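One thing: could you explain this record?
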Amino acid sequence: MVVSLLLALPAAAGLWLLTGARGLDVRPARRTALAAAVGTLVLAVAVVVADSAVDRPWLPELGVRWSFGVDGVSVPLVLLTAAVGVLVAGHAWVEVPAGGSPATFLGCLLLVEAGALATFTARDAVLFFVAFEVVLVPMWLLISRYGDGHDPRARTGAAQRFVLYTAVGSTVMLVGILLLVARAGTSDLVALAAARGSGLGGAGFAVALLLVVGLAVKVPVFPLHTWLPPAHTTAPTAGSVLLAAVLLKMGTYGLVRLPVSVTPDGVATLAPALAVAGTVGILWGGLVCLVERDLKRLVAYSSVAHMGFVVLALATGSETGLQAALYGNVAHGAVSALLFVLVGGLKQRWGSVDLAVRRPALRETSPRLGFLLLLGLAASLGLPGLAGFWGEWLALYAAWVPAGDRPRVVFVTCAVLAAVGAALAAAYALRVAGIVWAGDRPDPEAARTPDTTGPERWVLGVLAVAVVALGVAPMVLLTTTGDAVARIVGAR
C-alpha cells in the first residue's frame, strides 16, 4: 500500500498542477509542489524501511501484473530520486523560468519524479517500459517551453532531438522486452532473473542486444550521446538536475535490471564492445571539456565521461564492477546536481556562462559559491574523500581484473585508457577553476555578483553534504547494494 502511495502522490499532484491549476499563482504552486515532494520523500523512506511491495493483476489477459517493490539495487535510486525531487521543488523559490505557467512547470517536475520512481520500483518488464516512457512528455515540455536561451528554435531543436533519440531507443528496448516475454512466457522480472535466460534458447543474444542498445541511448553510451549536451544546455536548471541526477540513472538501472540480470550470457558476448564504447565516451567527454567554452555544456559532456565509467564497470561482469556501477550512478547524481545548480545560479547572475568572457575571481566576489564550485569540480575529477572517487576507482580495478569469461587484454587496455580519461577530468576541472574561481581580471564592480543566500544556499548545502558523505562513508551505499549484487553475479 505504501509503495502505491509513493507513486500516486507526485503523479496526482503533478497532474493537478499541469491540468487543473494552470492559472494558479506562483506562491501556492510552489507550496503545493514542495509539499508533494516532501511527502514523497517521507513515503520513500517508509517504503525502504518497511520493504513495502504491491503485486496484483493489472492486465490478466496478457499476464501483466501491477507489481512494485524495492531491493538493494533500487533502494539508493529511489531515495536519490525522492531527495532530488525535494531539492528541485525547493529550487523553485530561486528560479521559475518564463515560458508558461509556473504550475505547469512544477507539475512537469513532479511527473518526471513519479515516472522515475515507478521505473525504479517496477517488478514487471512491461510495467517497467510504461514507467520508463512516462517521463518523456513532461521532460520534453520542460526543455521546449521552459528552456534557457532566447532562440526558440534552439529549444525546439534540443527538445525534438531528446524525444527522437529517446523514442527510437525505447522502441528498440520494447522489441527486446516483447521478444523476452514471448520466449520466457512471463514478464515478472524476479522470475526472469531467476531463470537467467534459460528459457530463451537461441534468442538470448538477440534479446540482450536489443535491450542493451535501447537502454544505451538513455545512459547515454558513446556514440548515442549526442542528444544529451543540447538537452542539458537548453533545459532550465531544475530540468538539468533531474536529467542528470535521475533520468540518466534510468538507463543504467535498466541495464542492470534487464540484460545483466536476465540475459547474462548475451551481455557477456557484448561486453567487450560495451567496454570499448564506455572508454571512448570517457576520453571523448574529457577532450571536449578541455576546449568547451559554455560551462553548462561542459558539465553535460563531463556527464558523458562519468557515465562511461559506469558502463565500463557494468561490462566487466564482476561483483566489484557491478558495485562500482551502482555506486558511480548515485555519486554522479549528487555531483552533477551540485554542479548544475551552481552553473544555473551563475548563469542567472551573469547572463551567460561563456568561459571566454573575462570575469573577476569568484573566490573574491562570491566566496560561498566559489567554495562549492571547487568542491563540485574536485568531486567530478575523482578526488579521494569525495563522491566521485569510489565509483571511478572501483571501475578501473574491475576492468583490470574482469570476470573470467571476458577478454582480459581488451579490459586492461580499457582500464589504462580510462585512467587517462580520469587525468583529462583533472585537467578540465583545473581549467574551469582557473577561469571561474581564480578569475583573470580585477573588477571594481565585483560586488554586483551576489553570493548564495536563502533557498539556494540550502539546496547547494544539502548537495555538498551528500557529495562529502558519499566520499567519506562509501560502505553505507556499498553495503546496501551488496546482497543484491551478490545474487545477480552469483547466480551466473
Observations:
- The chain has 20 helices and two strands.
- The chain has a mean pLDDT of 87.
